[in-house]
Design goal:
Elements (H helix, E strand, L loop, with lengths): L1 E6 L7 E4 L10 H7 L3 E7 L11 H10 L3 E3 L7 H5 L2
Antiparallel strand pairs: 1-2, 1-3, 2-4
């Protein structure tokens, strides 16, 4: 399955995967507000055997099929929990 990946113009390391290029109709407006202006990054061919750096390909494929998009969140800051109590 082909997918099209966009990065957020507002939040670092937030990525949106879509099954069709520039087709944001299935993405909730609140998510689009959070992302800001989506910036096209790349087109990628996905299959169950493909490895992705920070996402589970099965979850991406399921999100694309079920919701019409997949949102890849920024990685959790490992020091964030330590700073909360400080």
């Amino acid at each position: 399955m082909k997918c099209f990946i966009y990065k957020s113009s507002k939040k670092d390391q937030l990525y949106l995967y879509l099954p069709r290029q520039d087709d944001f109709k299935d993405v909730p407006p609140i998510l689009m507000d959070t992302m800001g202006q989506p910036v096209f990054v790349m087109e990628l061919e996905l299959n169950p055997e493909r490895k992705l750096a920070r996402a589970n390909v099965a979850e991406v494929l399921a999100g694309l099929a079920d919701r019409g998009f997949y949102l890849q969140m920024p990685p959790k800051d490992p020091l964030a929990d330590m700073r909360v109590g400080s």
